[in-house]
């Protein structure tokens, strides 16, 4: 799946490529990043695994869905290579059941925290979802991930509270009606 490049005032969102495998592996091997992802959370141990994950992400779902690498050409002090991911994907029910629910999310290198990258990237994907006729987005966040919960608040999401409905793990569900 070829993702559209999405530009905001300060960000460039584009597809991850196999050429990004080293920086991908670096980001997803940082405990402050991976500890909030997956069931169970686990680091990306090596560049080969990074390549496998990038290749798998290419086939997540057709447009408007995707997982975009985030570049920050409009923010001084952050390296020019990708600093993380923003995503818009079908949300998987616990036990693997299909659903019409859509997840929005963000995973960022700690060096990019505190610059509004997650919020700005998520707002671009909210606009994409709205344009595609999606009526509701969920963000599912591990309890204790105060940074992601703050992003949900800035986006105007309603906190529904803890649930085990998604990904076979207890997460705090947030929803945004578009």
Based on the model shown, name its key terms:
178 residues, alpha+beta, Aminopeptidase, five-stranded antiparallel beta sheet, three-stranded antiparallel beta sheet, 5 helices, 25% strand, globular
Description:
The two termini are 25 Å apart. The strands form two sheets. Strands 1-2-3-4-5 form a five-stranded antiparallel β-sheet, covered by helices on one side. A three-stranded antiparallel β-sheet has the order 6-8-7, with helices on one face. The protein has five helices and eight strands. The longest helix has 15 residues, at 117-131. Helix 1 packs across helix 3 (47-57). The protein has 178 residues and is α+β, with helices and mostly antiparallel strands. The protein has one domain (6-177): Gcn5-related N-acetyltransferase (GNAT) (Aminopeptidase, 3-Layer(aba) Sandwich).
Secondary structure blueprint with pairings:
Blueprint: E1 6-7, E2 12-15, H1 21-27, H2 31-34, H3 47-57, E3 66-71, E4 84-90, E5 102-108, H4 117-131, E6 136-141, H5 146-154, E7 158-163, E8 171-177
Antiparallel strand pairs: 1-2, 2-3, 3-4, 4-5, 6-8, 7-8
Query: What is the CATH superfamily?
Result: Gcn5-related N-acetyltransferase (GNAT)
Weakly predicted, low-confidence segments = none
Share of residues in strands:
25-35%
Tell me the distance between the termini.
25 Å
Rg, rounded, reads: 15 Å
- The percent range for helix content is 25-40%
- H/E order of the elements? EEHHHEEEHEHEE
Total number of helices: 5
| Classification by helices and strands | alpha+beta
Tally the beta strands: 8
**Strands in their spatial order, largest beta sheet:** 1-2-3-4-5
Question: Structurally, how many domains make up the residues?
Answer: 1
